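To assess whether ligand presence alters the predicted conformation, the chain was also submitted together with pyridoxal-5'-phosphate. Input:
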Amino acid sequence: MKKQELLAVAKKHGTPLFVLDHSVIRANYRAFKRHLPRVQCYYAVKANSNQEIIRTLFREGSSFDVASYNEFMQVYEYLRGMRKREKDWYIWDQIIFSNTIKDRQTLARIRQYRPLVTYDNADEVRKIKAHCDSAGLVLRLKVPDTGSQVEMSSKFGCEPGDAMGLVDAAFAAGLTVEGLSFHVGSQCTNFDNYAAALAITAELFHAARKKGYPLNLIDIGGGFPVPYDAQSPRFERLARLLNREFARLFPDDIEILAEPGRFMVATAATLVSEIIGKARRDGKVFYHINDGVYHTFSGVVYDHWVPTFAAFRRGPAEVCAVVGPTCDSFDKITLSANLPGNLQIGDCLITENIGAYSTASSTRFNGFEGAKIIHKR
Ligand SMILES: Cc1ncc(COP(=O)(O)O)c(C=O)c1O
């Protein structure tokens, strides 16, 4: 949307306003499929769990990566009209529970659906056996995540050295391991991580098959980088590397899954916020706006994200702070935004590429509701 158009929409709906453009989501999904034709795309609902996004991607033919029972039910919403066989097939083939730790109640509730679930430790094998023995298992490996915006490997994934023991343990328990997964960290700009992860996965995959285990899929997780700035490496280059490594390391007949979250939605949303206060503190202009780190800018905290701001009014730029509306000094979005120093209360700011890990983790702290979401089809 052009700046003036955004301003007009913000005047109509009020601010803060989160404008979600579904044509961008569709374009991102199609680009992903075009560049990675062998890969089945499971949208990671956690990146933005807005129901309308799930609907758009469902209609595009996407599969889904869910982390909780509630996220599962958000996808299940679109399966209600299906016949049982079709529904069972969809859940088995198009949904993965990618959270390696699931509580017993969740496992018991999803048992009826024969779900595909990840795991990375022996206790989880016992828990799955006891509460969800219909599940197919995917073992998540710990892989390098050096330089990724959000690192994952300190919390998830088994050491490659322990992996075969965990495959053995699952089969010994009477469960089936369908394949192996990893996540190289979110907003992965160091593509060596993917190359290393695929090499680790391939070694284990072939060793397991040699032992007679019928592994038939790999899941390469998320991490696909978004072009937040000119320095971000291009997805197309990553796709070429991945396609080459798939062909070199794996048989043609296996399934390859991916769980892109950020890639699908980050560039699809723009936030219009409004300056509600202005003060000079230690010589620096502080713009207090009506959205902050407890709300749509929650990615600053949870996602290590560095947002940018653009103004409608022109003026000589200087280094300014942009802070949120709550009565908490932690609510600082940035201390170094390059903005005109002459902005006034009532002026609006624009933040692009704010579709991922933003509204998804927004709270209602201090009584502020967060941004209104509007959809552009
Ligand atoms: C298991 C899993 N899969 C996929 C994703 C999505 O990752 P990204 O947004 O980097 O594509 C995440 C993000 O936290 C995750 O934990």
